[in-house]
Amino acid sequence: MKYIKYEVHENTSVRQFLKAKNFSKKSIEDILKTGYILNGKKQRKSLNLKKSDELKIIIEDERVDYEPKKGGINIVYEDDNSLVISKEANITVNSKNQISLSNYIANYFIDSGQESKIRLVNRLDMDTSGLMLIAKNKYSHAYYQKQLEENTMKKKYLAVVEGMLDIDSLYENKFSYNEKKKNYEPSDKGKISRTYFKSIRINCDFSIIECEILTGRTHQIRASLTDLGHPIWGDKLYGSDKNLDRFLLHSYRLEFTSFYNEENIKLNDYPKFIGFL
């Protein structure tokens, strides 16, 4: 069993203290129901706090919920509540029917003595590489999910697209799933997708585009670029004729406020394929 320890600096209540620390409403209710430690004693309701009180939030040990498999993971950032890795292409993030990235993370948690479930904050397609955030407990997971919902977590990608695309603007459209084609297509009945695209390099055969996603829609970058007439290199599902072993899309920048320490974390991870273009 682990604890998240806080020192109280002003008079308040447990509920208000946790709310000020950006715990989700559900997390606060869970803490008040299951109990917390105040000055060494377990309590189960929102008591008043005074300056110099010690408040501990209980983090129960958990069993890793994926079968551990040996495999390399590239750790970019880690603290007691968070893990950021750089995912390789050609591996799923959490498929139950084949070896996935979650199996490798489970093995890392066990080897490093961390008793936690695998909680993926953001997910990447099998062929997409780059930065992924994993929460180590349910409270940090809810904290990061709130940042996603409020669009305060910044996620940027680099894509290599076919043809010359000169763009520096917000692109919006509605997309819905085509069951027959297994992809997303423009549709008035679909959900709105917002992505800011900015050209980084423009050549005759290809362009490198920075993509900042402002909504969390499945395949939104891939579908949007194809709708613009410039599919991602190697993305055959969305119209590319390039014969590659992956499509060239990489999550290269991630910015978020860390759980507990509330630090502004800014991470960059440039893709290997940029150096070959």
Automatic annotation (TrEMBL):
This is RNA pseudouridylate synthase. Belongs to the pseudouridine synthase RluA family. Residues 83-225 form the Pseudouridine synthase RsuA/RluA-like domain. GO terms for biological process: enzyme-directed rRNA pseudouridine synthesis. It catalyses: a uridine in RNA = a pseudouridine in RNA. One of its GO terms (molecular function) is pseudouridine synthase activity. Keywords: Isomerase.
